[in-house]
């Protein structure tokens, strides 16, 4: 896929100066050939365990990051390997903390940036709708039921992947057209659409969203991108109404509450300011992270609110990051159940969501997910702080990286430029981005599998050496 | 005194009444000290009388009844609230927080904050450069220390020592107040258990006081600091806290005292019974010591890296790690910008301190925070869950030490963590909305929920909470202190029992 992206970028680069097109075409073809060779030559194992699939997903994302960073290096877009790695990671994980100046890049490289986010967004959807429910946790919430003649989004793994593509690709096209209608050039519109639908957040120039009509399109695009694919499928294909979509209501409610609080804390707010605040809130909730200056005076509580919104994230089944709305609903119900249990210790209390009873395993895994999410944030913040950022910026950067939410906003409301940070601090953010993009579990399972492999290898080597030593004696 | 024959059956009233009598006793005692060396003796006697009368009325006119869990929660939470309210009276009557240009609501809020911070053993203070601790009389200062001492082991535990009629309800009451997952029995009867806890506690306090006198503190300072060390409270009689003495020996005594105070008191009891220490056999205590040691080493390395000399770095790191890791909250900064002023440190060590603000000490101790046992079980639970992803059909227990944890307890701990996380998030937003910056708000909320004392940024070890938080924000923090001291649920569920009673009455009418 990365090879295909590189080939497409090489061709698109011909629209501009074409200086990178040959490099991109050759690299892309090479990657494609290598991928095809591996696909043909390497046979899959007979018995595939769910953990293998989860670990393989992490491996694929890591490989994608390495390949994209290779493209940045060979084209000379990034001079240092760590810059290339950071840009690639922030692209594939849809985080968008860019260290490259997009205005100095050719068409091909700008397409790679947006394309890597688009691929990352698709991967996030696969993880959230196919891989985790089928091979990890939350099976009861997978949209599989055919009762009443309804066509589910995810009846099986292959159909689910196909159905996601059926929504994702037209969605990109729709937003592309909307940006063009708002006055953007076709190429810029395409790049913005790819960044919007994937909740990526890369932009092409500092004044990308100066035009109010572009702001409205971006707001609508971010709202759409943050919506659950299952909900969209229900409405578009299943013909179901929106009235029973509690998750959607909560997701939209987060926007309303966020805007209301920001309006309450701001002074001299007019309609234009409300639009800009809605933009900021939508960029935070959907974890897209498109930059926008906040109008008026920056309230002390505003960064706290935005950090909370970023960590809550958008709906489950969307490419957004954060813990996501469904997980929060479940956590809220677990908290209420715990309170009820304090009063009635022997009561058997089930947690229901959307008419389905959540299994105890699922509840346990979601609680642990919150635990791991906080652990990743604090350990990342610690590393970033050790490498030179102040406490507020460290916490903010760690939350944004783990929630894959794009440029970090400082405590005074200004957008921070990661290029100004120490290289080591930037590198410390990379694991959090990968963990966050993969909804934590797959990355942890992959790391555990890797550690087990290393341990087994060490043991085997030790045994071998001990046997050899015994034989020598 | 003869008690009336017909008495109102309310456990909350009975427990609150006795608790108020204890507090009034403490007020009388400290009023004597104030009368000997200060100017506010009369005010303190008046406060003691105002506390004594409702306490005596409640004690005489009520009797404990059979109680369900909802009533246990409302009894415990109600007692803490009422005691905190009456506990503010000496400050109010003595005009401790009276400043020019400050209205009664702010003065009352400050007095209540100091009272709640005292009883909940948090150690956050509204004294500061605008209102020096050193300007207060000895009685007021000793009263502050006393509030932490009485709150350290628990007001309700104290009440149970003299209330054998509670029988089985006593365990529920102690369990609702005790740090950790329920109360341990040291004796067949709950009153005996409560008494043993208090004897141990008093013994530890005496030991610390003697040790502090041996390293050069006056009798007054030694007793005052022993009160707040054994209770892991953190109030001091000096504006610069322990930094006033600038002595390694004093800091060592305080650190050892805090570690003992934050260890499980059941371990102390077993050690005394077997005449040899058994602490090292307890996995929670071992993990706790490892946590403190590891944090000290990392903070020392980071401080040395930040151009602080090794000896100074080790001293500052060890003291601040122990004092925050045990929820003590003392400071060894000799002034703003000195070595011990951790808000001037680099961000890395501050973040470790922030994590320690959450962790707290051991279960069954006087410390606050999440508690090490819950963290161990949480980690074990996470490990089990992740292994479960790789081995979906495996039956994997959660282990703590050599034992297997019961699933309901694991779920309870997981539920506690969820509620704790939500309170931190929501509390930070509310406190920030009341005019506090992100780091100060987060540090303040985590510190208040964990009963730690100083926070970060504008509410550090040499600052006053008046500088860092607005009056409404301080009230939110005071509420969170009580929520944290009672391990979340009693305060959150305290209105359930009154609501049910009200509902019943409406139905019967």
Which strand order do you get reading across the main beta sheet of chain B? 1-2
Share in β-strands of chain A? under 5%
Rounded to the nearest angstrom, the radius of gyration of chain B is 22 Å
Percentage of β-strand residues of chain B: under 5%
* Beta-strand segment tally of chain B: 4
* Gross geometry of chain A: globular
Main pleated sheet of chain A: 2 strands, antiparallel
Quote the distance from N terminus to C terminus of chain B: 37 Å
Structural class label of chain A: mainly alpha
Q: How many helices of chain B in DSSP terms?
A: 22
Return the average pLDDT of chain B rounded to an integer.
87
Largest sheet of chain B: 2 strands, parallel
| H/E element order of chain A | HHHHHHHHHHHHHEEHHHH
Percent in helix of chain B: 55-70%
Low-confidence stretches of chain A: none
CA-CA gap between termini of chain A: 54 Å
Strand runs of chain A, count: 2
Oligomeric nature of the chains: heterodimer
> Can you give the mean pLDDT of chain A?
86
List keywords for this structure.
heterodimer; A: 473 residues; mainly alpha; two-stranded antiparallel sheet; 17 helices; 2 strands; B: 509 residues; two-stranded parallel ribbon; 4 strands; 2% strand; globular
């Amino acid at each position: 896929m990365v090879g295909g992206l590189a080939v497409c970028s090489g061709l698109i680069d011909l629209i501009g100066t074409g200086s990178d097109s040959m490099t991109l075409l050759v690299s892309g073809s090479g990657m494609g050939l290598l991928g095809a060779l591996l696909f043909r030559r390497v046979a899959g194992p007979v018995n595939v365990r769910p953990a293998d699939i989860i670990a393989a997903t992490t491996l694929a994302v890591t490989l994608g990051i390495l390949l994209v960073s290779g493209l940045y290096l060979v084209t000379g877009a990034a001079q240092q390997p760590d810059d290339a790695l950071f840009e690639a990671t922030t692209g594939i994980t849809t985080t968008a903390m860019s260290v490259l100046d997009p205005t100095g890049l050719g068409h091909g490289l700008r397409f790679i940036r947006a394309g890597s986010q688009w691929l990352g967004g698709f991967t996030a959807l696969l993880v959230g709708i196919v891989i985790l429910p089928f091979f990890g946790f939350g099976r009861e919430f997978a949209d599989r039921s055919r009762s009443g003649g309804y066509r589910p989004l995810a009846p099986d793994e292959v159909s689910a992947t196909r159905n996601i593509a059926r929504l994702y690709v037209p969605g990109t096209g729709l937003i592309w057209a909307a940006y063009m209608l708002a006055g953007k050039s076709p190429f810029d519109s395409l790049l913005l659409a790819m960044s919007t639908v994937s909740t990526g957040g890369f932009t092409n120039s500092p004044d990308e969203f100066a035009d109010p009509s572009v702001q409205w399109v971006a707001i609508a695009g971010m709202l759409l991108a943050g919506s659950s694919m299952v909900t969209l499928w229900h409405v578009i294909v299943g013909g179901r109404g929106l009235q029973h979509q509690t998750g959607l209501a909560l997701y939209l409610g987060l926007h309303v509450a966020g805007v209301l609080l920001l309006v309450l804390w701001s002074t001299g707010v007019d309609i234009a300011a409300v639009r800009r605040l809605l933009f900021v809130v939508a960029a935070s909730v959907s974890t897209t992270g498109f930059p926008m200056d906040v109008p008026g005076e920056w309230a002390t509580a505003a960064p706290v609110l935005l950090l909370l919104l970023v960590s809550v994230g958008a709906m489950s089944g969307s490419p957004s990051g954060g813990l996501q709305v469904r997980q929060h609903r479940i956590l809220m119900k677990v908290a209420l159940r715990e309170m009820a249990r304090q009063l009635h210790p022997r009561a058997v209390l089930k947690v229901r969501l959307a008419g389905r009873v959540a299994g105890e395993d699922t509840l346990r895994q979601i609680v642990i997910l919150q635990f791991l999410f906080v652990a990743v944030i604090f350990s990342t913040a610690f590393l970033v702080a050790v490498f030179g950022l102040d406490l507020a910026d460290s916490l903010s950067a760690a939350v944004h990286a783990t929630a894959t939410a794009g440029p970090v906003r400082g405590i005074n409301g200004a957008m921070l430029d990661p290029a100004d940070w120490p290289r080591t601090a930037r590198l410390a953010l990379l694991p959090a981005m990968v963990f966050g993009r993969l909804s934590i579990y797959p990355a942890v399972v992959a790391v555990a599998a890797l550690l087990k492999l290393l341990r087994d290898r060490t043991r085997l080597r030790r045994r071998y050496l001990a046997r050899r030593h015994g034989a020598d004696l | 005194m003869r008690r009336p024959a017909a008495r109102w059956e309310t456990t909350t009233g009975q427990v609150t009444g006795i608790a108020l009598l204890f507090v009034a006793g403490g007020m009388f005692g400290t009023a004597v000290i104030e009368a000997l060396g200060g100017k506010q003796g009369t005010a303190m006697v008046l406060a003691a009388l105002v506390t004594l009368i409702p306490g005596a009325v409640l004690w005489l006119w009520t009797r404990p009844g059979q109680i369900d869990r909802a009533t246990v929660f409302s009894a415990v939470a109600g007692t803490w609230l009422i005691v905190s309210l009456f506990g503010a009276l000496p400050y109010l009557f003595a005009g401790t927080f009276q400043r020019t240009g400050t209205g009664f609501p702010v003065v009352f809020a400050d007095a209540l904050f100091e009272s709640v911070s005292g009883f909940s053993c948090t150690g956050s203070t509204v004294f500061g450069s605008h209102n020096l601790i050193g300007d207060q009389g000895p009685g007021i200062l000793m009263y502050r220390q006393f509030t932490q001492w009485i709150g350290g082991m628990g007001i309700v535990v104290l009440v149970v020592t003299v209330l054998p009629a509670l029988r089985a309800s006593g365990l529920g009451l102690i369990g609702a107040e005790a740090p950790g997952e329920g109360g341990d029995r040291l004796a067949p009867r709950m009153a005996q258990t409560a008494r043993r806890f208090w004897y141990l506690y008093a013994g530890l306090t005496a030991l610390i006081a003697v040790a502090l006198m041996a390293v050069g503190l006056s009798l007054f300072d030694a007793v005052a600091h022993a009160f707040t060390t054994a209770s892991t409270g953190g109030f001091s009689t000096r504006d610069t806290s322990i930094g006033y003495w600038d002595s390694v020996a004093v800091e060592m005594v305080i650190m050892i005292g805090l570690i003992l105070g934050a260890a499980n008191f059941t371990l102390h009891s077993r050690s005394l019974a077997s005449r040899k220490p058994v602490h090292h056999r307890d996995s929670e205590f071992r993990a706790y010591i490892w946590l403190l040691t590891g944090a000290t080493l990392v903070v020392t390395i980071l401080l040395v890296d930040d151009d602080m000399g090794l000896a100074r770095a080790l001293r500052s790191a060890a003291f601040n790690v122990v004092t925050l890791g045990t929820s003590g909250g003392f400071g060894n900064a000799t002034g703003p910008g000195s070595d011990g002023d951790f808000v001037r440190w680099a961000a890395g060590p501050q973040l470790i301190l922030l994590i320690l603000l959450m962790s707290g000490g051991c279960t069954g101790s006087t410390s606050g925070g999440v508690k090490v046992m819950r963290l161990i079980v949480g980690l074990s639970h996470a490990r089990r869950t992740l292994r479960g992803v790789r081995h979906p059909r495996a039956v994997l227990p959660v282990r703590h030490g050599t034992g297997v944890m019961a699933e309901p307890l694991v779920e309870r701990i997981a539920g506690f963590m969820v509620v704790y996380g939500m309170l931190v998030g929501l509390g930070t937003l509310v406190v920030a909305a009341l005019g506090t910056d992100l780091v100060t708000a987060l540090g303040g909320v985590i510190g208040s929920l964990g009963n730690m004392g100083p926070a970060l940024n504008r509410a550090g070890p040499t600052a006053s909470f008046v500088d860092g938080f607005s009056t409404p924000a301080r009230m939110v923090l005071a509420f969170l202190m009580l929520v944290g001291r009672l391990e979340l649920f009693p305060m959150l569920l305290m209105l359930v029992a009154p609501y049910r009673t009200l509902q019943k009455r409406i139905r019967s009418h």
